[in-house]
């Protein structure tokens, strides 16, 4: 195989992922802005009326009743979490995370970027129900962050982007575990066994050499239903199916890359903007901030995202470098580390996703959303302020 072909095979999936995530970040931002305008300038009551409209899907006892917002959060977001797990699988098997030394630094950085924000959140939120939202501060929104980096053009090298995306992937792994283990409802053993049986069936089909994606669709739907009924959040079905997808070519077909190529546009240009439209609508001057608990949660989330991510990611990265526990990607200097750490505070998608799972009190949910929006915007501005003065990077062409 020629050097050009080898380079294409290694670089193209990463480049495609970065391009799709960047464009998706702009679509996500458009959905969030539309939601804020709808609620604050057009019709707040109409906004809630639309997304709380009940929709029944199925027949008889097999039917599921949910409002539109929950169909998006429990159903369509499966595509997003499936895509995340595909990227996790690829990174673990053939990507940067397969090499312990290359993986060490982003893993340590991500751990610092989780532990410090959670500690700050607990310190500011206090006890009681408000403390239940600690998981909100964990994740980094790669799409939104890459969208912000796109504004800077070639002032940011590809090394910073890869460093940030790798941290976001590790963050997502931890956030997924928290969603599955901490924010699950009452568990049903029977339905859990049914979901596990569906996953075993997927492995059997793989063993039999079945490669047609259409053969797995009904099994995947059955697994989603069983997971939904089990009490574990339904999107975990997408995570499990993604992790079972082979990362290496089978019979000459790279199934994982094919699925990423097909699903990325659906997730980036349809699911995530619709999710933002349905979930980011919050009255900026509403009752959430007038209630002491709501304002305390908003402040705790915002400070944890902005200060916690910056200190946690940058501090743990510099500490790991000092102990020679890992190496930075090519072209990443101190400015790049600080800029990536600041942009790590853009929690947005997964943070908005966790908020209603963490809180049953709508005042706390709304307060958390205000904190997420404020923290993400400030983190984006801070990241741009740190990275903008840097010179041009020739690695843009790579």
Brief digest:
With 398 residues, the chain is an all-alpha fold. Helices cover 71% and strands 2% of the residues. It has a two-stranded antiparallel sheet.
What does this structure look like?
With 398 residues, the protein is mainly α. The chain has a single domain, classed as Na+/H+ antiporter like domain (Na+/H+ antiporter like fold, Up-down Bundle). It is built from 14 helices and two strands. The chain has helices at residues 3-42, 44-51, 68-93, 100-125, 142-152, 158-181, 189-207, 213-230, 236-244, 255-279, 292-322, 334-343, 348-358, 362-387; strands spanning 54-57, 64-67. Strands 1-2 form a two-stranded antiparallel sheet.
């Amino acid at each position: 195989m020629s050097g050009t072909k080898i380079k294409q095979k290694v670089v193209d999936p990463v480049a495609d992922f970065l391009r799709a995530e960047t464009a998706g970040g702009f679509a996500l931002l458009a959905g969030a802005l539309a939601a804020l305008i709808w609620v604050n300038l057009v019709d707040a009551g109409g906004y809630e009326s639309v997304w709380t409209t009940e929709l029944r899907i199925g027949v008889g006892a097999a039917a599921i009743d949910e409002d539109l917002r929950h169909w998006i959060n429990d159903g369509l977001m499966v595509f997003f979490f499936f895509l995340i797990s595909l990227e996790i699988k690829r990174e673990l098997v053939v990507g940067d995370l397969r090499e312990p030394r290359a993986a060490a630094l982003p893993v340590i950085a991500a751990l610092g970027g989780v532990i410090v924000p959670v500690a700050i959140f607990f310190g500011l939120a206090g006890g009681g129900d408000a403390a239940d939202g600690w998981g909100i501060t964990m994740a980094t929104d790669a799409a939104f962050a890459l969208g912000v980096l796109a504004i800077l053009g070639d002032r940011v090298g590809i090394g910073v982007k890869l460093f940030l995306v790798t941290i976001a992937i590790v963050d997502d792994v931890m956030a997924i575990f928290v969603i599955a283990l901490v924010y699950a409802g009452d568990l049903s053993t029977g339905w859990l066994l049914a979901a596990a049986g569906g996953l075993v069936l997927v492995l059997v089909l793989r063993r039999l050499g079945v490669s047609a994606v259409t053969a797995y669709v009904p099994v995947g739907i059955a697994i989603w239903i069983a997971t939904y009924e089990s009490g574990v959040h339904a999107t975990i079905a997408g995570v499990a199916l993604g992790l079972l997808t082979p990362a290496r070519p089978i019979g000459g077909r790279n199934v994982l890359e094919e699925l990423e190529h097909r699903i990325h546009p659906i997730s980036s240009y349809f699911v995530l903007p619709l999710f933002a439209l349905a979930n980011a609508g919050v009255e900026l001057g509403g009752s959430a901030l007038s209630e002491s608990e709501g304002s305390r949660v908003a402040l705790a989330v915002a400070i944890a995202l902005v200060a916690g991510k910056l200190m946690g990611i940058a501090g743990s990265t510099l500490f790991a470098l000092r102990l020679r526990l890992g190496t930075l990607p090519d072209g990443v200097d101190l400015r790049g580390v600080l800029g990536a750490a600041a942009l790590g505070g853009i929690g947005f998608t997964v943070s908005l996703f966790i908020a209603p799972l963490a809180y049953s009190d709508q005042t706390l949910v709304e307060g958390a959303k205000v904190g997420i929006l404020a923290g993400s915007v400030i983190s984006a501005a801070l990241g741009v302020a740190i990275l903008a003065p840097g010179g041009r990077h020739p690695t843009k062409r790579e």
